[in-house]
Amino acid sequence: DAGVTQSPTHLIKTRGQQVTLRCSPKSGHDTVSWYQQALGQGPQFIFQYYEEEERQRGNFPDRFSGHQFPNYSSELNVNALLLGDSALYLCASSLDRVDTQYFGPGTRLTVL
Amino acid sequence: AQKVTQAQTEISVVEKEDVTLDCVYETRDTTYYLFWYKQPPSGELVFLIRRNSFDEQNEISGRYSWNFQKSTSSFNFTITASQVVDSAVYFCALSEEVNNAGNMLTFGGGTRLMVKP
């Protein structure tokens, strides 16, 4: 039974560029959440997707957007990258909107 | 607003010592969930435990045990007879039940545990 998978593993971008990160949830899970983890800090909630809609959003600007597909996989898009967007981006999936979240290995984004 | 505080940023112990990681939380909800996750150097967050606010029973799983006390808003984690493989960053997290709208996790800053041989 595959766990949560994320791609790519690492990514290097320059300021002003746009990036797309991808996540496939655990089998049977229909809810996907995204978190940003800066170095040395705890993860910060970005948003959660269920039934292809954004259901809950953290304190992140509109430059951060997402999408959920009919197969429950999800994308995180970040526009106009800033140096401060450099972080580990974690995807988590759960059976529903209130169940335990299980995390993927993350995508490390470096913005130069 | 919900908040989680892990006052210990770093703990260093020698193998076989017992160690307790502290977690204090703030919430205005009566229904909420508390979690512990482990983050090894690989970066992936590994789920350890989930407790709901109505269940204050302590839990033991092998060398791990958790002490939940609503009176002090604490959810502490103890590792008995620590091992080198326990070295990681440990995060305490909280989620509130908000009309079934979602369960965003609020994390503490984490405690880095180093177990030396």
SSE arrangement of chain B, N to C: EEEEEEEEEEEE
Overall 3D shape of chain B? globular
**Unreliable segments of 5+ consecutive residues of chain A:** none
Low-confidence stretches of chain B: none
Strand content of chain B: over 45%
Distance between the termini of chain B: 41 Å
> How helical, in percent, are the residues of chain A?
under 10%
Biggest sheet overview of chain A: 7 strands, mixed
Order of SSEs of chain A: EEEEEEEEEEE
Tally of strands of chain A: 11
Query: Which structural category fits the helices and strands of chain B?
Result: mainly beta
Average pLDDT of chain A: 95
| Structural class category of chain A | mainly beta
Note the overall shape of chain A.
globular
Q: Which oligomeric state applies?
A: heterodimer
Q: Span between N and C termini of chain A?
A: 37 Å
Q: Which secondary structure elements does this structure contain, and how are they paired or packed?
A:
The complex is a heterodimer of chains A (112) and B (117).
Chain A: E1 5-7, E2 10-13, E3 19-24, E4 31-37, E5 44-50, E6 53-57, E7 64-68, E8 74-78, E9 87-94, E10 102-103, E11 107-111
Parallel strand pairs in A: 2-11
Antiparallel strand pairs in A: 1-3, 3-8, 4-5, 4-9, 5-6, 7-8, 9-10, 9-11
Chain B: E1 3-5, E2 10-14, E3 19-21, E4 24-26, E5 32-39, E6 46-52, E7 59-61, E8 64-69, E9 74-79, E10 88-96, E11 106-107, E12 111-116
Parallel strand pairs in B: 2-12
Antiparallel strand pairs in B: 1-4, 3-9, 5-6, 5-10, 7-8, 8-9, 10-11, 10-12
What attributes does this structure have?
heterodimer; A: mainly beta; seven-stranded mixed sheet; four-stranded antiparallel sheet; B: 117 residues; mainly beta; six-stranded mixed sheet
What do you see in this structure?
The complex is a heterodimer of chains A (112) and B (117). Chain A has no helices and eleven strands. Chain A is mainly beta. Chain B has 117 residues and is an all-beta fold. Chain B has no helices and twelve strands. In chain B, the strands form three sheets. In chain B, strands 2, 5, 6, 10, 11 and 12 form a six-stranded mixed beta sheet that branches. Chain B has a four-stranded antiparallel beta sheet with strand order 3-9-8-7, with no helix packed on it. In chain B, strand 7 and strand 8 form a beta hairpin. The mean pLDDT of chain B is 93. Classes of the chains: A mainly beta (112), B mainly beta (117).
